[in-house]
Amino acid sequence: MSTAERTAVTATRTRGLRRILRPRARLWLGTLAAALILFVVAPAALSGYQFGLLAQFLCYAMVAVGIGLAWGQGGMLTLGQGLFFGIGGYAMAMHLQLDDAGPGGVPAFMSLYGSGTVPAWWEPFRDPWITIGTIILLPAALAALLGYAIFARRVRGAYFAILSQALVAAFAILLIGQQASTGGSTGLSNFRGFFGYSLADPLNQRLLFFLAAGTLIGMVLLVRLLMRSRYGELLVATRDQEMRVRFLGYNPALVKTVAFVVSSVFAAVGGALFVPIAGIISPSDVAVVPSIMFVAGVAIGGRATLLGPVLGSLALSWVGAQLQDNYPSVWSYFQGALFVLVLGFLPQGFATLGGVLRRRKGDSR
Amino acid sequence: MTLVLTTIVSGLCVGSLLLLIALGLGLTFGQMGVINNAHGEFIMIGAYTAYLVQRALGDPGSSLLLSLPVAFVTAGLLGVVLEVTLLRRMHRRPLDTLLVTFGVSLVLQQLARDLFGAPSVNVTAPAWLSGDPFVIAGADVPRTWVFLFALSIGCVLGLRIVLGVTPLGRRIRATVQNRDLAETSGISTAATDRMTFFIGSGLAGVAGVGVTLLGAISPTLGTSYIVNAFLVVVAGGIGQLWGSVVAAFGLGILESFIGFSIGQSTAQALVFLVVVVFLQFRPQGLIALRTRSIA
Amino acid sequence: MSLPRTLITGAAGIALLATTLTLSGCTGAKVGAGASGAPSAKSCVDTSGDSIKIGFINSLSGTMAISEKPVQQALYLAEKQINAAGGVLGKTLSVVTSDGASDPNTFAQKADKLLTQDCVAAVFGGWTSASRKAMLPVFERDNGLLFYPVQYEGMESSKNIFYIGATTNQQIVPAMDYLAQQGKKKVFLVGSDYVFPRTANKIIDAYAKAKGIDIVGEEYAPLGSVDFTTIVSKLKASGADAVFNTLNGDSNVAFFKEYTNAGFTAKTVPVLSVSIAEQEVKGIGVQNIEGQLTAWNYYQTIGSPANDAFVSAFQKEYGQDAVVDDPMEDAYSSLFLWKAMVEKAKSFDVKAIQENSDGVSYDAPEGTMTVSGKNHHVTKTARIGVIEPSGLIDTVWQSPSAITPDPYLTGPDYPWAAGLATGASAAPSN
Q: Which of B23, C97, C237, C315 would suit a FRET pair with A46, their CA atoms being 20 to 30 Å apart?
């Protein structure tokens, strides 16, 4: 059998599998497989430390899902997701701090570095519902405001990327400067409870993992739902031919803003869940470089696919954690080389590796 | 009154530094549409070049002057290598250049760390720069700042002449205005791109020599400048040399005023925010190229 | 399906899924339920073999690698010497290293790994306050021991951390005493924007108020900042007669260059720095800071048999030009202090070590260090030094005796500090 024939057979086989399984069936099977891996295999196979690490990476992956939607499907490269991750994270951290301090209490770091009183803008976060509302609504409002203003003025993609980067840089500097009310460069840490549940109990840590895993699966399903809707088609159309969409009578700015808002809320939820899992949020989790690293996983996995961003982000975090300890210098080279090779030569990420190879083989025929 | 003058003078100092680091970026980003995240690392390379030249020559004065052209060529050549091997493949994908060059910057940083070690190194300022400060309008101006100011203005004028008068400059402008038409008229746009990138990266190298007069040289030197540099270019208007000049000095004075009244660390954040808000209202920047395109 | 409906269905789905998951699982302990809310982590340290595992956690990559790599070298020297002399309780030390990557969250992750996966008996390292504060909850939760080798801002004590570096009353307060003694009346404060400078300056403010010293300026630069035009202009306008410098890392280079350019010298307006040790002098360039003052507890030039042995052993290991400084000496000593504690407790058990730590002492290169069981700090001698053209630092003044640690400044010697430590978390109880 010649190479070409073999390729053809493989192609038919995969196409055959796709034909046999209807989209809906594939959806259920995929969800089931993901749930099985995250809820059954992971807890059994991983050590306590690895399990906790994976829980943090799941939170990063939530940001990645959002970036996949905004950038992969919508063409908006945002280098500022750290801002939303940080808003979610800090809102949650403030609530946990106040909760630990008890009714009317003052978090310990404030008495040490501040005036010993709780600033007025902290007070609302004593209430769990206001906190949860803030985590979702504040990023949404901010993203809507920022996004619509920029997209309505037809700002080019590069501008948007640079503006979002400047914004996240300003956010990090402001956080660092307000030692008395945000913990400065140290950030907020040392939380005891999460909505009443003790964070020191491994069982509760496990539940947090499940919460993160469930949320992540839910987000992926939501993106799939969006992309298969009429809106999804519009978003992709806007990415590829904004002018034509406009001439068809749609408002491309609105279409793009919605995707940006959704991705920002995802990032904020990721940040909010990250806090009880990691036990810390500091400016170095939300600054310029982590914001680029969020994008890195998406780019490497495959920005325009459904699962590429999630898998890319998880894989990059995991490999990083393994390499960093033993070969700190190699890890930097590896990261850099990965960026260059993937974006330079495989712009759609590893998700399309198979397709590219098949095409190459076809060409060489 | 003296305080206001001092603020303005120190703002001009900060502005000349901003201009110096943004000038090359304005060329590659503005003229070519390439978002070079490794620009900061080219500055770092310029700084290490100054260090190596001084170590070889010994005399601070002559080595400073010599390192300016050496750094220009070194960083410029590296820029050409980057353009030829990577960026040429990605002309129509400006967002991807941003991420690829970020990868390049990670590699260059680690390379510098492995070559020169993690601890920072230093160059000695020549005696004629470390003497008593000049007194300008009642404010003390350290000699290094006068030098940096002159250096940045010199670079602007040099660039203006190259772009405005020389055949190369004509080719660059033609390529920017209409790449296809330029190609049809017999201009090798690929060669023009290489030269543009050479000059842009070279200017980063010169900026690197300049910053050695202010602080230490470390592998992560570039990261502290890159966001500022981008903002100056964007605020000034992409592809607008004079826009960058006005934006750099404007932001410098703004930062200095906020720094004096509120505090240095808030100043930087507020300047970033001001630029972001400003661009919400005037996304084309201070000075805009009038075009007929709708997008 | 229309967009709003899709979004609402999806969001409701996520919420439902998440809630069901949380409610369906049997949840763990509530805060405050039972004794301390959670079962104390069981130790997995293996004490059966011929060797015992310990962990080193330092930044080998990122911005802090400059300072933390040498600290790890000092730790390895101590490990080598202890093993050559027969180990601890007859067991050889076997080291597991981790890279903190200059990032607080990574420090916390890696500390957890060292304690629960590698099962080390004790961990040595950390540098920035952010890294320590990030690791603190991990050590308390996993019930491990951290030996922290760097001077810091005080106002903290945990039963799971031993603070081998100076607290404020062993470094900052004596440094201010020295400036006051020299007749300085107008002090300008400059620091990087993070917890150590801010807390140190809060203490200095209180001190100055009580002793009639004017604080004529208090300025912070973002970490890593190289733009000091504004700050030095303000310094010039303030008429200060001394500068108290808590800048970190490379910002020092930029600050001192600008300071020199503006016409200041060590003779006219001296700068007293608390974050510049021998290692940093190399990076800043000695020509920029020759003649300036520093405050530490140890300098390489200290003449004592213990120090001579330490310096020559270090240089034999890492080259004749190798330089040692205060945090390295603290790191080196911390391993010996742990050894002494283990030998006194006759056990590697965390609880046994905590209970036996009080009064354990070690003849360190800087002088005898004695552990206080009350706050887990050690006694230290304060030393003011002047930076020599060789890059080394000579002692010009030292406290008459070793100073007892007082992290919260609540002792009778510091009446002016009353109220600074309100709300500080409770001191450890053994």
A: C97
